[in-house]
Automatic annotation (TrEMBL):
Keyword set includes Glycoprotein: no
InterPro entries noted in UniProt: Acyl_CoA_acyltransferase (IPR016181), GNAT_dom (IPR000182), N-acetyltransferase (IPR051531)
Domain annotation N-acetyltransferase: ranges: 8-169
Name of protein: Acetyltransferase
Amino acid sequence: MNRAAPVVRLRVPTDEDAVAWHRIFADPDVMEFHGGRAAELSVYEELTARQRRHDAERGFCLWTMVDGSGRVIGFTGAQPWPGDWGPKGEIEIGWRLGRAHWGKGYVTEAARQTLERVRGAGVAEVVAMVNARNARSIAVTERLGMRLAEVFTIPGSERRGHCYRLNLHQG
Ligand SMILES: CC(C)(COP(=O)(O)OP(=O)(O)OC[C@H]1O[C@@H](n2cnc3c(N)ncnc32)[C@H](O)[C@@H]1OP(=O)(O)O)[C@@H](O)C(=O)NCCC(=O)NCCS
């Protein structure tokens, strides 16, 4: 792909960013694979506070994405896998973008910045856990060159999930 990457900046999420995430993610399209409906503000307050702790402890987290005009458009970054199943103890990369900003390459660019920072922090390998029907998210993993390592059943559901992996010391 030869298109110029869009301008996107990553910053550690502030308390105010919880309000921005809550507002831009309150959309059924964005939440299709995250319970189907908007999450409470308290969910984002907890999530952003947890990311600030990750940043302090590890030097990376799920960062707030800011576009070229300073608008908050979503999050992308890395965190320890938060589940009590799956790739426990590993580093997960993840992304969520406001609906108005899909289709512009923001997350692929933010994920590339994420991989550089995480590699710089000494992480050898990352995983991405994606619902098997989430074609847009799977396309991001493909653009990043991740490989499908495992297909699993999402606990508590009949749904299938994909675990993608990327070794950060190759190439
Ligand atoms: C998954 C999600 C982040 C993908 O967003 P996206 O905008 O499709 O992904 P990118 O930012 O990588 O953009 C790629 C798209 O921008 C287009 N694009 C435009 N300019 C581009 C550029 N310079 N570089 C790369 N892609 C560009 C690509 O062609 C592609 O569009 P297409 O899918 O219509 O072909 C988004 O759909 C989302 O937030 N979903 C809801 C939350 C979610 O499911 N998160 C993942 C959980 S695992």
